[in-house]
Design goal:
Layout: H1 3-12, H2 17-46, H3 52-80, H4 88-113, H5 119-137, E1 145-153, E2 156-161, H6 165-189, H7 193-217, H8 227-269, H9 279-287, E3 296-302, H10 305-312, H11 314-331, E4 337-342, E5 345-350, H12 355-370, E6 383-389, H13 395-411, E7 417-419
Parallel strand pairs: 6-7
Antiparallel strand pairs: 1-2, 3-5, 3-6, 4-5
Helix pairs in contact: 2-3, 3-4, 3-8, 4-5, 4-6, 4-7, 6-7, 7-8, 10-11, 11-12
This protein binds guanosine-5'-triphosphate.
Residues 273, 301-306, 309, 314, 317-318, 321, 343-344, 410 line the site of guanosine-5'-triphosphate.
């Protein structure tokens, strides 16, 4: 093939070295975005997210679009570098990518209608796509691309198509029009319109590009470049923007939902006055302990708390309960679990604690209570504490022993720790 024709073809197609570099950079960026989308899709599948099938087919369409532009660049690089014998490989790759992108858009249309549709129900769509792709790669005069022959015209490179090309082209176009039409009808009824619009947008862009390139191949040039290359770029930019908008909305909704769930979970496990865990949570926590037992239980009861309520009112009593809870929170370790058992009683599960450790914690607690803000001048707060070691899985019996020890501490004059035998 004479080199002048090649150069004329390249110049005519608007491809000089700078434009080629621009394209290479663009395909690098879209490849990065497409890869990120694949990672995102995998994460959605791992979380069992209902958006995952949508993202999957969209990812495939996007990867194919990137592949198409990459193939198109490779065709031009082959021409520029004089590797004319290799032109058909990237050319066929581009065509294959387009067919698979379209198959993926059709599959996307199906999953947008029903996210629960199993993958195997969508496989015929991809199977037909792969069959067409196969036709592009077989070097037989009766099939879509007849042979390794191609023409370089002032508007680009064109393969020498076989007799099947016309019917295949018409069938593809008819399918596309049918699906696009069905989607438009559904879009009117859709609740979340963004994915629909994205797909309709994709179809429209590729359809217009296909029509443009058909005219171009027939010698009627509307735009001085390949419509499909432009369509891929427009589709990817538009689709990424739409996806970003769609998922930022989904993410906002999910964050709100998670926040609500956390609030509900908190409500169910927290004591509203003290902010410590509630009795129900502590019971659940102790139920989950290993059968051989772990650590021990501190049973704390404020001394003469009734006096505070009677003399200074319930509001001050509540303030004191909050202050005591803060004292407990600041004293115990992170792995220990503290709850308000009820009234002025608190239970702390000390993980991995023997009597010595319990003594140390109890001393720190009693000191902390003594230094609480006094509710009234002259009133010093104190508590009595009972401790029992968890020797087996029967935490209820252990708590009873801690309670008995607590009563001994009260009887012995309060403001102290008693350890259950
Ligand atoms: N302010 C306030 N008081 C409460 C709350 N729940 C229980 N109480 C009061 O806590 C007091 C508990 O008193 P007791 O533990 O029986 O007795 P005490 O006065 O602490 O005396 P000893 O335990 O024998 O040292 C009662 O007066 C209850 O009304 C609460 O949520 N807020």
């Amino acid at each position: 093939m004479p080199n002048e024709i090649v150069v004329a073809g390249l110049t005519g197609a608007g491809v000089d070295t700078w434009a080629l570099w621009g394209k290479i950079m663009a395909v690098g960026a879209t490849a990065t975005l497409s890869s990120l989308l694949v990672v995102f899709t995998v994460a959605l599948y791992r979380n069992g997210d209902r958006e995952a099938p949508v993202a999957l087919h969209f990812s495939v369409a996007n990867l194919c679009a990137t592949l198409y532009v990459a193939g198109d660049i490779a065709v031009r690089i082959c021409l520029l570098s004089g590797r004319l014998d290799a032109v058909m490989v990237p050319y066929r790759l581009s065509l294959s990518a387009i067919v698979l992108a379209l198959a993926s858009l059709i599959a996307l249309h199906r999953v947008l209608g029903n996210r629960a549709v199993p993958l195997r129900r969508l496989s015929p769509i991809y199977a037909v796509g792969l069959l067409l792709v196969l036709l592009f790669w077989i070097d037989d005069p009766r099939l879509v691309i007849a042979s390794d022959q191609y023409r370089v015209t002032p508007v680009g490179v064109f393969a020498d198509y076989g007799v099947l090309a016309g019917p295949v082209y018409v069938a593809c176009l008819a399918t596309l029009v049918a699906v696009a039409w069905a989607m438009l009808r559904r879009a009117r009824r859709a609740e979340g319109r963004l994915p629909w619009r994205m797909t309709v947008f994709g179809f429209t862009v590729f359809f217009l590009a296909g029509v443009h390139d058909t005219f171009r191949e027939l010698g009627m040039e509307l735009l001085p470049f390949s419509g499909l290359t432009l369509a891929c770029a427009v589709f990817q930019i538009g689709a990424f923007a739409t996806m970003a908008m769609h998922y930022s909305k989904t993410l906002r909704e999910r964050t709100y939902h998670d926040h609500q769930m956390r609030r509900l979970a908190d409500k169910a496990t927290r004591d509203p006055l003290s902010g410590l865990f509630n009795r129900a949570y502590m019971e659940q926590h102790l139920d989950r302990l290993p059968a051989e037992g772990a650590g021990g239980l501190l049973f704390i009861d404020l001394d003469h708390f009734k006096v505070v309520n009677d003399r200074y009112g319930h509001e001050r009593g509540d303030r004191l309960i909050r202050a005591v809870a803060d004292g407990i929170r600041q004293t115990v370790r992170e792995q220990d679990v503290a709850c308000r058992w009820g009234g002025d009683e608190f239970v702390v599960h000390l993980s991995e604690a023997g009597s010595d450790a319990a003594l140390a914690v109890a001393e720190r607690l009693l000191r902390a209570f003594r230094h609480l803000d006094p509710v009234a001048p002259g009133l010093e707060m104190s508590a009595s504490v009972g401790f029992a070691q968890l020797t087996d899985g029967d935490w209820r019996a252990t708590l009873r022993r801690a309670d008995q020890a607590l009563y001994r501490a009260k009887a012995a004059g309060r403001n102290r720790l008693a350890i259950a035998p």
